[in-house]
Design the sequence.
């Protein structure tokens, strides 16, 4: 396929060109071609319905049958070929409002949406929240993610890393805005499930009630399947329930969102461990048509040091967090050393503080700079009183009488190893020392517990000890068995598990209905195109990302109350309105280029357009330099930038941001608006060399011609 | 190389790792941002979550990634 790689856009270009060069000489064929053009444009702009393709085919057939083309070239043949060769692409544009090639301007997702592993339409829900339409925003989110509240509190937010506003100043606070809207919607009782499809009469078993399993269950239930979830723990949530402490994610948040799945008809069997309490044959005998495994990665790695298995006070962090979630409140010890530098180590240390441990130290073998835990988590732990011992390698657990007394460590220094660009910790001879401890917590990672899957002998595993799947469809090596989540990726993020569950649900549906599986990961689907709210360029520039409120330090040290609080409503609405609306502006830069290169004005300083080399953005510069000529708007392919006359003013508006507002000058003769004073000056400067006599009276083009021409058509002597 | 969240990277070559899939060949040459490195032990063998410019978020092996200057 030529040029654009999208047959829809290609066919629009083709018919446009054919009309332009006169390939339809007869009026009735030209009318037919114009109708086809209009229908194709509807598809390319996301406005088409079910009747569009049949209507196009009917008109193309009429062109093919038309005798005026007999013996000569018929553009209908090319169109007919395109429609037949790429029928599924045309259909997909209509059904999903999505251009997988990213060519059809209105159907291409914004960078934040593309970055989200679940593909949430971020700009649409942000604009709804900016207008106070929280429930509608949550409806939009829950088309792609069943857990907006959970993700509003613990998502690793790839969307914010790709946020274009981040190239201008700071990214939109997407995560906290989502949390606010979800909380508000649940509080007001407007949090609802999407409409379910009709019952398909088939049963699916989901093994594991973590984010991946619950996500798959949600989408399968919406598609009309009967879904039953079995779970080893006594409650749903998996790692988000037992691996994330309550001060980061309150249990009620998970419970409320899981309850929405029960409303859809999803049923649960808790305290049922696959491989122990039930096996695959038993499940198959219950008539399930497909299985989805999301068993997570709950087994901790051991430290592998002397004395580790000699004392009961050596515990793993995941087990500690699990026990605390299940109700354990006794302090593990008075002097706790946590070994590790990741998020789980931080969570374990902060949990110990809250349980009442007076002295908690994290021992990490590299420096703070190399610490893999989130920076904010490390800072918060430090504020709460967790101590850090960097460049510390544990060597041996010391103790007597079945009681740990300390952790013998050796000081490390970082050196560059030959053939590696990675600094490695190397022990410093003679630097042995003892960290006093009565409990040692190991937090050096988790792996998948493969033992529960031992009966699935045909199941392929990766060398990393994870289930080997097709990452597009989440199919395992056993037909009818699918898998996603940490058991596939290793310990990863909540949003990845949710995205994996969603992909698996689609693949299970295709498997059960005999539809071929996709070969590429899905492209996120645009869920809407909300109008842009207007605001001044100065407001858009001056609004800053608000800081999140925090629980006071004493409560953080003593209770499991949520640490990160919420934005105020006003802050949420303002922050959502900082969005640059990249779902509408594709950042092609044509406006900047035409203003700078063709007009020689350079009024648009949109430094955020380039991903690799962003430069300074100054939205206020436009007001100073713009002449309101409209060249930028005329060249914008998506209508993101537009020029509009309102009363006696001409406004230049980019996705709702008023970049320039200039007084209009009116024709002294007929009263028609003829542009801003700056624009007229610009024209005068340009034509001065050929017409030096500038008349004092300001007239529009037509009035000027009337006044100066010797003849005009009306007064021409016959 | 220790990758950290927020760093800009380039997929500069196909990986020889088993987790590299044929559809990832078209990622070669793309730029992106590390959005979830190994947050446990900085394992050089761990898969990194990378958000690629215009091509979504994927877990990629480290041998295909190179840091790029901002």
Sequence:
């Amino acid at each position: 396929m030529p040029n654009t790689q999208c047959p829809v856009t290609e066919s629009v270009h083709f018919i446009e060109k054919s009309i332009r060069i006169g390939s339809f000489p007869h009026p009735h064929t030209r009318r037919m071609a114009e109708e086809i053009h209009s229908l194709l444009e509807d598809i390319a702009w996301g406005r088409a319905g079910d009747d569009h393709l049949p209507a196009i085919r009917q008109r193309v057939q009429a062109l093919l049958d038309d005798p005026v083309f007999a013996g000569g070239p018929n553009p209908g043949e090319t169109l007919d070929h395109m429609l037949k060769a790429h029928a599924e692409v045309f259909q997909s544009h209509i059904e999903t409002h999505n251009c997988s090639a990213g060519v059809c301007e209105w159907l291409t997702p914004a960078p934040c949406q593309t970055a989200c592993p679940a593909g949430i339409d971020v700009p649409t829900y942000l604009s709804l929240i900016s207008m106070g339409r929280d429930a509608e925003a949550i409806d939009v989110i829950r088309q792609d993610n069943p857990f907006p509240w959970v993700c509003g509190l613990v998502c690793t937010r790839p969307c914010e890393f790709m946020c274009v506003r981040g190239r201008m100043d700071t990214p939109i606070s997407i995560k906290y805005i989502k949390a606010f809207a979800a909380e508000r919607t649940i509080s007001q009782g407007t949090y609802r499930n999407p409409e379910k499809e009709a019952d398909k009469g088939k049963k699916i078993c989901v093994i594991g009630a973590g984010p991946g399993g619950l996500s798959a269950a949600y989408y399968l239930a919406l598609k009309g399947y009967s879904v039953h979830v079995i779970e080893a723990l006594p409650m749903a949530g998996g790692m988000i329930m037992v691996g994330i402490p309550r001060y980061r994610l309150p249990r009620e948040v998970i419970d409320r969102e899981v309850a929405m799945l029960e409303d859809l008809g999803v049923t649960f069997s808790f305290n049922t461990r696959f491989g122990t309490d039930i096996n695959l044959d038993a499940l198959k005998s219950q008539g399930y048509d497909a299985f989805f495994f999301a068993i997570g990665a709950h087994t901790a790695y051991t430290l592998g040091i002397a004395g580790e298995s000699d004392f009961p006070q050596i515990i793993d962090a995941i087990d500690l967090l699990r026990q605390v979630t299940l109700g354990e409140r006794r302090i593990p010890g008075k002097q706790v050393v946590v070994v590790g530098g990741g998020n789980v180590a931080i969570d374990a240390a902060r949990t110990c503080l809250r349980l009442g441990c007076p002295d908690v130290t994290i021992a990490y073998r590299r420096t703070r700079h190399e610490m893999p835990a989130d920076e904010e988590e490390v800072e918060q732990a430090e504020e709460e009183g967790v101590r850090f011992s960097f460049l510390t390698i544990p060597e041996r657990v010391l103790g007597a009488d079945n009681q740990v007394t300390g952790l013998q460590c050796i000081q490390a220094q970082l050196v560059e190893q030959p053939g590696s660009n990675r600094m490695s910790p190397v022990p410093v001879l003679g630097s042995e020392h003892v960290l006093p401890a009565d409990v040692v917590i190991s937090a050096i990672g988790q792996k998948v517990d493969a033992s529960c899957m031992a009966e699935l002998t045909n199941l392929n595993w990766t060398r990393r000890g994870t289930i080997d799947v097709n990452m597009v469809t989440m199919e395992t090596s056993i037909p009818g068995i699918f898998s996603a989540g940490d058991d596939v990726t290793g310990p990863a993020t909540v949003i990845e598990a949710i995205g994996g569950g969603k992909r698996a649900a689609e693949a299970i549906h295709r498997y059960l209905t005999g539809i071929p599986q996709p070969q590429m990961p899905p492209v996120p689907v645009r869920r809407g195109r909300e109008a842009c709210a207007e605001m001044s360029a100065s407001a858009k520039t001056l609004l800053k990302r608000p800081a999140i409120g925090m629980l006071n330090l004493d409560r953080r040290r003593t209770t499991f109350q949520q640490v990160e609080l919420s934005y105020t409503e006003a802050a949420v609405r303002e922050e959502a309105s900082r969005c640059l609306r990249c779902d509408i502006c594709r950042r092609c830069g044509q406006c900047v280029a035409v203003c700078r290169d063709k007009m020689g004005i350079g009024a648009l300083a949109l430094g955020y357009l380039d991903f690799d080399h962003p430069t300074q953005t100054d939205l206020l510069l436009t007001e100073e330099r713009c002449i309101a000529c409209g060249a930028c708007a005329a060249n914008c392919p998506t209508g993101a930038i537009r020029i509009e006359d309102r009363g006696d003013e001409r406004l230049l508006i980019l996705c709702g941001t008023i970049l320039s507002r200039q007084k209009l000058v009116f024709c002294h003769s007929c009263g028609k608006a003829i542009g801003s004073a700056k624009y007229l000056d610009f024209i005068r400067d340009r034509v001065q060399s050929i017409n030096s006599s500038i008349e004092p009276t300001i007239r529009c083009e037509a009035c000027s011609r009337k006044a100066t021409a010797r003849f005009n058509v009306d007064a021409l002597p016959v | 190389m220790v990758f950290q969240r927020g760093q800009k990277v380039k997929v500069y070559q196909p990986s020889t790792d088993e987790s590299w899939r044929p559809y990832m060949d078209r990622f070669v040459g793309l730029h992106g941002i590390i959005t979830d490195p190994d947050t446990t032990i900085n394992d050089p063998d761990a898969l990194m979550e990378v958000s690629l410019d215009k091509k979504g978020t994927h877990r990629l092996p480290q041998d295909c990634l190179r840091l790029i200057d901002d």
